[in-house]
Amino acid sequence: MTAQLNPRGDVAVLVPAAGAGVRLGPGRPKALRLLAGEPLLVHAVRRLAAAPSVHTIVVAAPAAEVAAVRDLLAPVAPVTVVPGGAERQASVAAALAAVPAGLEIVLVHDAARALTPPEVVESVAATVRAGHDAVIPVLPVVDTIKEVDAGEVVLGTVDRATLRAVQTPQGFRRAVLSAAHAAAVDALTDDAGLVEKQGVAVRCVPGSEYALKITRPFDLALAEHLLTSES
Ligand code: CTP
Ligand code: MG
Predict the structure, then answer these.
(1) Which of 30, 99, 111, 202 could bridge across to 134 with cysteines, CB 3.0–4.6 Å?
(2) Three-state SS for 55?
(3) How many Å apart are CA 32 and CA 40, to the nearest integer?
């Protein structure tokens, strides 16, 4: 059954899903690869649709897969599907252009973070609603991080206490995200990075281990394990 999105929700979520998934190895675009029998994108959209703040979901699909992605998601939730671009940033910009007027909170969420719990979506949205223009979910860094030179010789050890690993969904006041994209010159892998360049303060909230980005085969195996041991 198709989940109904909340007509009283105040949040649009953009889902860049147009990447190839090169690091996952040969196969279909990553968002369409199967995890426990269903495409990553289906897992991601189902969890977004379960977050009560979400009013609109816009997916940026691989250009050749737009019709297939519409059909795939129709039974999951009402979504808008647009063709993505060559870089993630272009895919986000294409999805942003399709957000209807009136929604002033916009979240950007990687399809590759397919198991992100709805609670993280709600927490990011609530923090934007509370007055923060840019919000990111983060985890503490557990490994010791070293800076190295081109010859793999250590230059120094970074103080781990001040580091955070950044996840999605990242949440923004709509005007702030639009302005950052309009001003973007070089492609960055995260939207908060664009907003930082505009001098906007970015607020951190706790992320989730389940929001891991499925990038390499190991991550897919881990996600499969998390899903099957959950139920
Ligand atoms: N993405 C996108 N458009 C692109 C590139 C990436 O919408 N041109 C999306 C991906 O589909 C993914 C998210 O951005 O949901 C994060 O990107 P990443 O994990 O790097 O995915 P891929 O680019 O697909 O993977 P790879 O870099 O290994 O090819
Ligand atoms: Mg990529």
Answers:
(1) 202
(2) strand
(3) 6
- Phi (first) and psi of residue 136, to 5 degrees: -130, 140
pLDDT above 80 (res 90)? yes
Q: What is the pLDDT of residues 147-183, one digit of tens each?
A: 999 999 999 999 999 999 999 999 999 999 999 999 9
pLDDT per residue as tens digits for the range 116-140: 999 999 999 999 999 999 999 999 9
Residue with tokens 């989940």: 3
User: Which of 48, 114, 56 has its CA nearest to residue 80?
Assistant: 56
Selection from 30, 40, 35 nearest residue 62 by Cα? 30
Query: Cα(89)–Cα(138) distance, rounded to whole angstroms?
Result: 20
**What is the spatial distance between Cα 76 and Cα 97, in angstroms, rounded to a whole number?**
23
**Which protein residues touch ligand 1 with a CB less than 6 Å away?**
16-23, 30-31, 60, 84-88, 91, 110-112, 213, 215
Q: Relative to the CA of 31, which ligand 1 atom is closest?
A: 11
The set of residues, in sequence order, having a beta carbon less than 8 Å from that of 148 and lying 6+ positions away, is 154, 155
Nearest-atom number in ligand 1 for the CA of 112 is 15
How buried is residue 129: exposed, middle or buried, by Cβ count under 10 Å (0-12/13-18/19+)?
A: middle
In terms of Cβ atoms closer than 10 Å to its own Cβ (0-12, 13-18, 19+), residue 100 is: exposed
Distance 19 CA to ligand 2 centre (A): 6
- What's the whole-model pTM score? 0.96
